Amino acid sequence: MVVQAGDNSWMLDEIRSVRGVRHAVVLTSDGLLKVRTEHTDTDVADKLAAACAGLTSLGRGISDEFGTGGEPRQVMVEFDGGFLFVREAGDGSRLAVVTEAVIDPALIAQQMQMQVLQIGERTLSTPMRKS
Fold first, then answer.
1. pLDDT for 20-63, tens place per residue?
2. How many whole angstroms separate alpha carbon 111 and alpha carbon 62?
3. How far apart are the C-alpha atoms of 82 and 59, rounded to whole Å?
4. 8 CB contacts (<8 Å, ≥6 apart)?
5. How far apart are CA 42 and CA 100, in angstroms?
6. DSSP class of residue 72?
7. How far apart are CA 41 and CA 18, in angstroms?
């Protein structure tokens, strides 16, 4: 089950059900938490969202320097005890998943892609802010 203030509480059910997934969140590009699974405490989800925004910013800088520029499509970090995956999930949103160490990274990435397509990028998009 997913905990959120809005009516998208079903958003992360399928990705959370994948064996080895510990946490799943949807965040805005500037690191604000939009959706979290009930298995993820609010403090953990907020820290994860902020960290993922930082990683995405680093990816953008690398893309500008060494690629053709623009937003990174996916960032993956392997650490002792697991993985972190962050991918685009609509304009201005990211889907982040933390897993255990014993998983198939390709399966997680594929499931994240399917989750975003199933939900629809429009649902996950963050409206542009007016200055």
1. 999 999 999 899 999 998 888 999 999 999 999 999 999 999 99
2. 26
3. 20
4. 2, 34, 35, 119, 123
5. 20
6. -
7. 19
